[in-house]
Amino acid sequence: MENIEDTYFETKCVHSGIKDYEYGPVVPPIYQTSTFKFKSAAHGAALFAGEEKGYIYTRMGNPTIEAMEDSVAELEGGHKALGCGSGMAAVHTVFAALTQTGDNVICCRAAYGPTTTLLNSIMKRYGVETTFVDASNIEEVQNAVNGRTRVIYIETPGNPTLSIADIEGIAAIAHKNGTMLVVDNTFMSPALQKPFEFGADIVLHSMTKFLNGHADVIGGVVVVKDEETYREFRKVLNQIGGVIDPFNSFLVHRGIKTLALRMERHCESAMKIAEYLESHQAVSNVMFPGLPGHPQYRLARKQQKGPGGLISFKLKGGYRAGQNMMNNVKLFQLAVSLGGVESLIQHPASMTHASMGREARSDAGICEGLVRLSVGIENVNDLIHDLERGLEKVDDVREAVMI
Ligand code: LCS
Questions:
Q1: Cα dihedral sign for 197, 304, 116, 244?
Q2: Same domain flag for 74 and 219
Q3: CA 261, 263, 267: angle at the middle one, nearest 5?
């Protein structure tokens, strides 16, 4: 095969991370083992001392996990990756590796609820203080930096408002001030956005979403740009222990093979659905980076290859209308999570972002009536028909309220 680095993204999705294995399988075997036999006492000692390459214990490394990690690192254009047991384990690993008591973190307000909660609870207890900013406003980010800022952490597009942060602009602020920029790239996947190309220092994902793509794994990953950071992060992950297991790594690696194809369909269908929703009389506001009316439309076009598969919208009838809609769709399943082949619908204020509390939600622009869709790869006409069915019931609610 050609050098994997010289191939197109779609080719990398299929081939990256795969090595030569005994018996020549085309798919990496699942090394479902917790530990590895040493050839001798001296061999074991040499492995522990780092004088020889090999595997010791699956928390410290495993060939199936490593194959998946190498694939993600290759796709993101990073140096190496660390597979974690969940997206939250990845987020925690990053903060545990980069911060200490007395440090300040700047975090976007439009972040996954539990990320905000982690910073406001456990990290706060450890003496790390967080300043929350509207990361789509670069001046607000700049003004928040102080002498103790160690990390700037952004999600772009943000969960669930889909506001966009300027990765290149924020990376420049981070570097001018001797801090690091961490980008949660979950909503885009490397098929649509490569944060390292815009200056990010660390990229992370909830692999539970688009990378795996089939709603059957909980996993996370941290991608770094150099060996020194990799070693430091590996040490921290090894101590915290939040590693992924071989079988889930195998599934994610398998899911990645179709990532490029899936993302194309997610984007194409989400675009059609966003346009449909925008023209619907029951809908007051559609948040989707592919619509020219999105406040950061031009920025999205600069740093993203496509709009992604997530759409948030508000109904004129508020939360009650949203509830009625969610109860009356059939193909869109009422469930949290996103990025799988099946379409999902959920209500951030009472579900994914409930832990943040009403005030923090309001500051982050998450109104109580917001509904979020994760558009899957079903036929888009079926999906629009399903939404139509739900939105018909919304009209019933408005009439009932008026009476
Ligand atoms: N980062 C982002 C952007 C996420 O959306 C999530 C999960 C995480 C990190 C955490 O990943 P996990 O530990 O769940 O693998 N987001 C979810 C969501 O919006 N609905 O359900 C989970």
A1: negative
A2: yes
A3: 125
